[in-house]
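Budget justification aside, the reviewers requested a transparent look at the raw inputs and outputs of the sequence design task funded under Objective 1. We therefore reproduce one unedited record. The lines immediately below are the structure tokens for a 134-residue chain.
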């Protein structure tokens, strides 16, 4: 049986559904304040955790350690540059069939998955490296 959502959880989920990008908990906190729906930052984090465990919010962690949250609408995959931090979305999903197989073979309900590749984008890979002797 699914627990009833709190008002804070509903507000955060509604906000995430209206945004077309993944955002940090701090961004959610600031956006809610700007909409006169203020709540404490700790409440934002607790609500995000509950929504994640319910399977309606997904989180992706950047190389910097920052977590970005979005409503679960579709699988999202990215190429993320370790130098400049740019994230390039990947539209195809090479592991979708694996997800289906795993759900069946392990009787495991998968809410979402993420796939993240880390490296250097074109701009950063051709940029000259600063010399230590300069």
């Amino acid at each position: 049986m699914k627990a009833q959502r709190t008002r804070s959880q509903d507000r955060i989920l509604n906000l995430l559904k209206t945004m077309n990008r993944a955002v940090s908990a701090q961004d959610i906190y600031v956006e809610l304040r700007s909409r006169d729906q203020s709540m404490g930052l700790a409440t934002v984090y607790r609500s995000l955790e509950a929504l994640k465990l319910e399977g309606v919010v997904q989180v992706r962690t950047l190389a910097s350690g920052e977590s970005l949250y979005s409503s679960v609408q579709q699988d999202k995959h990215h190429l993320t540059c370790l130098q400049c931090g740019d994230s390039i979305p990947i539209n195809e999903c090479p592991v979708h069939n694996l997800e289906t197989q795993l759900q069946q073979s392990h009787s495991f309900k998968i809410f979402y998955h993420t796939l993240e590749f880390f490296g250097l984008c074109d701009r950063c890979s051709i940029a000259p490296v600063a010399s230590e002797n300069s």
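The CA atoms of residues 50 and 98 lie 26 Å apart. Strands lie at 57-61, 67-71, 76-81, 87-90, 114-119. Computational costs for records of this kind are itemized in the attached budget.
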